[in-house]
Write a structure and sequence with these properties.
With 297 residues, the chain is of the alpha+beta class. Helix content is 27%, strand content 34%. α2 packs across α5.
Length: 297
């Protein structure tokens, strides 16, 4: 008998069909990132740490996966009971719409009533305080917060939790910037230029000729070292006319309240992430180094 003509077992033919089908249709599916329990716990821990550091009177923090399913809910003592359900709704909405929930609230507040019937199609909570957790450019989950001192603080806590997973592991790189390049950086652009930019920190050669806008950095701690000149910096208080200027960055025209600090040559000033600050007055020329650190998120 010629071995080349022998009949193959039926199971072999079936297996071959499955293999062939898999090869042909591999492009019909896609792998997406999804939170693990460890990732959810890390995001919640970062959010809790931020809320305690900034003395939030309460906060319910919910983490959902890429499908919007609840993974973890924690609630600070004293937070109102409904906060847990609301935080889950915010987190799920951030995932399903792939955007922070404050954008949806703004749309409705500006009169787009057509958004309201969406709730009859899919459950959503269009209240500020929900943020997608983005890993490698894709939504891997969401975090929602309810019950802090304000809607803005809800969002700040949520962003701190999301940032814990979005921060990449930095590659160790040694950089040397020559003195001539540092001096040149002070003269570039309106307020100087960046010397070093890394995922975990940035160093800038900065200058100011007058007062600026009030700012809050939700992910970065600022460290100032004054080289020349004097300035009055206000820290704390509340932003006047706050507006989102970039992800994790909020700016206003001034600060209401806060503490005035007078800085001069040789002084160092550290401003933790989430603390409003404002150069209220400047005696030019004012030059200083700025280190923005994202470490510890």
């Amino acid at each position: 008998m010629n071995k080349s003509n022998r009949t193959l077992p039926a199971w072999w033919a079936a297996a071959a069909c499955v293999i062939a089908s898999t090869a042909v249709h591999a492009a019909d599916t896609v792998a997406i990132p999804n939170l693990t329990l460890e990732g959810a716990e890390r995001a919640a821990a970062a959010a809790l740490g931020f809320s305690r550091e900034h003395k939030a009177p309460g906060a319910a923090i919910a983490i959902v996966d890429a499908g919007g399913h609840t993974m973890l809910v924690v609630r600070l003592d004293g937070t109102f009971a409904a906060g847990s359900d609301i935080s889950v709704g915010k987190a799920r909405t951030a995932v399903m719409f792939k955007r922070p929930t404050h954008g949806l609230e703004d749309v409705i507040n500006k009169g787009r009533d057509a958004m309201i019937p969406v709730a009859a199609v899919t459950a959503f909570t269009p209240l500020q305080g929900g943020v997608p957790i983005v890993v490698n450019g894709q939504v891997a989950g969401g975090i929602g917060v309810s019950g802090a001192s304000s809607a803005q603080q809800d969002e700040e806590i949520a962003m701190a939790g999301a940032a814990a997973l979005a921060t990449p592991v930095p590659e160790a790189v040694v950089q040397h910037i020559a003195a001539a390049d540092v001096t040149a950086a002070f003269g570039r652009n309106e307020n100087g230029d960046t010397l070093v930019s890394r995922p975990e920190f940035r160093v800038s050669a900065s200058r100011r000729d007058g007062p600026g806008q009030a700012e809050v950095h939700l992910a970065d701690t600022d460290i100032f070292y004054v080289l020349e000149g004097k300035a009055t910096v206000v820290t704390g208080g509340e932003l006047v006319d706050p507006k989102d200027s970039a992800p994790g960055e909020v700016r206003g025209t001034a600060l209401a309240g806060g503490t005035e600090i007078h800085v001069a040559r040789g002084d160092v000033l550290t401003i933790p992430r989430g603390v409003p600050h404002w150069f209220k007055s400047v005696s030019a020329p004012f030059r200083y180094f700025v280190v923005k650190s994202s470490a510890g998120l």
